Amino acid sequence: MYLAELSSPAMAALPRSTPIVFPIAAMEQHGPHLPLYTDSLLLGEIVRRAEIQTSGQVVFAPLQWLGNSDHHLDFPGTLSAPPRVYLDLLVAMAENVIRHGFQRLVFLNGHGGNDVPGRQAIFELRQSYRDRHDLLLLIATYWHLGDPFKDAHIPFVQPHMGHACEWETSMILRLAPHLVGDNARLAAVDATPAFHPAFRGWTARERSPTGYLGAPSAARVEKGERLFQVFTAGTVRLLERVREWNGSTWQE
Questions:
Q1: Nearest Cα to Cα of residue 27 among 42, 16, 45
Q2: What is the DSSP string of 163-220?
Q3: How far, in Å, CA of 107 to CA of 32, rounded?
Q4: Which residue intervals of 8-165 are DSSP H helices?
């Protein structure tokens, strides 16, 4: 179900154990070859597929296209909510549905920069409702919900998600090929984090003057479809676990 298509009485009639999903993405630079709306396009497609597969058992809020993208602001076209502003926005959206009695909330994330403020939002919400043991508050980034290498014969170059990379470029090629620029001659840019396992604060330009991280020249349509299938299946599995939670215990 899509929240935007429900009436207020229809929403009020739903069981309060119905999972409410907030898809959160971004509007930011994606190198010289992908559109600014890449993260939102990709997450939107996963939501579209997952909504069909969950058969009216889950409510999907409208996709939130504004994310925390301050680290990409050196590149024109990027729009960003600063971290604290973004965190407060997520908390407020969740509190809206908690106020109406809903108990199972999932932020479904499609942008790496949303991960830290999203986790903090979940943490702060839990502390605010620390005596509500009937609440399930989650955040999940879609590319962590499935393994595209398992039982597959497609030769991926990258072992994980980058930025405007083999994975994202492949998915946009599958979804909207007319929006993909010339990626064939783009040399790979190392996406290895500096000082790992420590976390170093960074901006996109200092890691990549071109704005991408990974190997976009390795993108293929069939890789994109594989990624959509795997990540949608993982999203649906997670939402099934949310639905099946017994409503009171820490464990599932």
A1: 42
A2: BSSHHHHHHHHHH-GGG----TTPPPB--PPTTTTS-----HHHH-TTS-BB-GGG--
A3: 29
A4: 8-12, 38-53, 83-99, 115-128
Q: Which residues contact 92 (CB under 8 A, 6 or more apart)?
A: none
168: in domain: yes
Residues contacting residue 15 through CB under 8 Å, at least 6 positions apart? none
Does a structural domain hold residue 251?
A: no
* Residue 252 belongs to a domain: no
Cβ atoms 99, 129 nearer than 8 A: no
DSSP conformation class of 143: G
Given a cut of 80, is residue 38 above it in pLDDT? yes
- 221-244 per-position pLDDT tens digit: 999 999 999 999 999 999 999 999
- Which pTM does this prediction carry? 0.96
> Count of domains in the chain?
1
User: 30, 33, 74, 35: which is closest to 213 by C-alpha?
Assistant: 30
For residue 107, the domain's CATH number is 3.40.50.10310
How confident is residue 193, by pLDDT bands cut at 50, 70 and 90? confident
Is 249 inside a domain boundary?
no
Q: What angle do CA 65, 66, 69 make, to 5 degrees?
A: 125
Domain that holds residue 89: 3-244
Identify which of 45, 64, 62, 52 has the alpha carbon closest to the alpha carbon of residue 176. 45
Q: Is the pLDDT of residue 4 over 80?
A: yes
Q: Is 147 helix (H, G, I), strand (E, B) or coil?
A: coil
